[in-house]
Design brief:
Order of helices and strands: EHHEEHEHEHEE
Radius of gyration: 16 Å
Domain Tr-type G: 5-200
Strand content: 15-25%
GO molecular function, one term: GTPase activity
Strand order of the largest sheet: 2-3-1-4-5-6-7
Number of helices: 5
Helix content: 25-40%
Organism: Kribbella turkmenica
CATH topology: Rossmann fold
Protein name: GTP-binding protein
Shape: globular
Pfam families: GTP_EFTU
Structural class: alpha/beta
Largest sheet: 7 strands, mixed
């Protein structure tokens, strides 16, 4: 089957509370999915009562955003927002079975945590490309360089017996999902990304 250039399927994966759903909300707002005067609750993807009560994603959900590429053509990006808690690992695995790549979201202060390891192992086993997003770079206790290094170490550990180390060549995006900003340029710890939106 030929690869479509106008469609990408990605899963956003992370440990609980690292900002997956907040990032998806910002992407939906910036892509024009919501009307200017439309009232939308925070965490639009967490639609279940229990999810709203607990403040966590329990069921994987999908949405799509449209993105104008450099050549002027539109690309549809199908996004799966996956649970961040290990108890819902089956939902994460189901989400990974439907995508071409993952966006691995890691908190700029907390770094990779157990669910990060679980999800990354599954993605690497499927030989999926990974985009690392270091989120919450504007936290006062951010330690961005250390978190990127810890994530590289996690990759090395998970690829220990794999002769193909090409997975180590992943892009890093620095973001503040709450502010709706991201950049390919690393900011100082506790500072905002140098972009005004999520398009690095």
């Amino acid at each position: 089957m030929p690869v479509r250039n106008d469609l990408r399927n990605v899963a956003i994966v992370a440990h609980v509370d690292h900002g997956k759903t907040t990032l998806v909300d910002a992407m939906l707002w910036q892509s024009g999915a919501f009307g200017a005067h439309q009232h939308v609750d925070e965490r639009a993807m967490d639609s279940g009562d229990l999810e709203r009560e607990k403040g966590i994603t329990i069921l994987a959900k999908n949405t799509a955003v449209r993105h104008k590429m450099a050549n002027g053509e539109q690309m549809t990006i199908n996004i799966i927002d996956t649970p961040g808690h290990a108890d819902f690992g089956g939902e994460v695995e189901r989400g990974l079975s439907m995508v071409d790549a993952i966006v691995l979201l890691v908190d700029a202060s907390e770094g990779p945590l157990p669910q990060t390891r679980f999800v990354l192992r599954k993605a690497l086993a499927r030989q999926m490309p990974v985009i690392l997003v270091v989120n919450k770079v504007d936290r006062p206790d951010a330690r961005i360089s250390e978190v990127v290094d810890e994530t590289y170490e996690l990759f090395l550990d998970l690829l220990d017996h794999d002769a193909d180390q090409s997975a180590l060549d992943f892009p890093v995006v620095y973001a503040s999902a709450r502010a709706g900003r991201a950049s390919l340029t690393q900011p100082a710890d506790g500072e905002m990304p140098d972009s005004e939106d999520l398009e690095p």
